Amino acid sequence: MTARLACTWYGLDDVPVDAPVLVLGNSIGTNQGMWAPLIPELAGRFRVLAVETRGHAGSEVLPGPYSLDELGQDFLALFDELHLGTVRYAGLSLGGMIGMWLAAHAPERVERMALICTSAYLPPATNWIERAETVRAKGTGSIADVAAGRWFTEGFRAREPERVAAAVAMLEATPDEGYAACCEAIAGMDLRGDLPRITADTLVIAGADDPATPPSHAEAIVGSVPGARLQIVPDAAHLATLEQPEAIGALVVAHLGGAR
Ligand SMILES: O=C(O)CC1=CCC(=O)O1
């Protein structure tokens, strides 16, 4: 059964009606706010569709566990409902995992993609299962401090406490069951065998200081997706769209193109 996904269009009044559609996929414990600093630039080039993953923000919270297949099928169902043929795609972390799934299972739907701070395989599964148990028992707020330490470098946390607090507020607002069930999807995920089938023109972006999905995970994706390229962004941890929005925006635009 697919879940109804919340999504928001940007740029429809700014770009030609035939401008490419750019679909954005969020990371676990966030919402479309993780793209906010990039939206003005992207919406001047694309019809941007910011989608929120099952169990997150305004999307339906079905009881877990979820699988990556289910998260990917949700996106395909949304594409069908909105009559989207081929799209460009950018996803961070869990959003990048969904992008790889889409590009491998529905290659005709994804022509170019940017995979940001993500991984095709993120063991040990036991860590994700334990995190799911913690969140079901104590809520997403109970993991907020630890998450902020993965999401941002120490320097950014010291310099930008308000921006860090805004990101943590996204986590605290995420439904406990949705978050836990997406942890279980990551626990069961292994996309490594799917990567050689991907035909989309792929850019993989890593944060140099990302402890959650370090650059070695990006290198592994680049090694398996035909023709993929790697960019490592300095002074960025996991939520690189919030810590280094200009650098990430420039890379995404240079790779995905757009109407301008
Ligand atoms: O654990 C985190 O918050 C980092 C992360 C791993 C996968 C994802 O979507 O976020």
UniProtKB/TrEMBL annotation:
<dbReference type="InterPro" id="IPR050266">
    <property type="entry name" value="AB_hydrolase_sf"/>
</dbReference>
<dbReference type="InterPro" id="IPR029058">
    <property type="entry name" value="AB_hydrolase_fold"/>
</dbReference>
<keyword id="KW-0378">Hydrolase</keyword>
<protein>
    <submittedName>
        <fullName>3-oxoadipate enol-lactonase</fullName>
    </submittedName>
</protein>
<dbReference type="Pfam" id="PF00561">
    <property type="entry name" value="Abhydrolase_1"/>
</dbReference>
<dbReference type="InterPro" id="IPR000073">
    <property type="entry name" value="AB_hydrolase_1"/>
</dbReference>
<dbReference type="InterPro" id="IPR026968">
    <property type="entry name" value="PcaD/CatD"/>
</dbReference>
<feature type="domain" description="AB hydrolase-1">
    <location>
        <begin position="20"/>
        <end position="244"/>
    </location>
</feature>
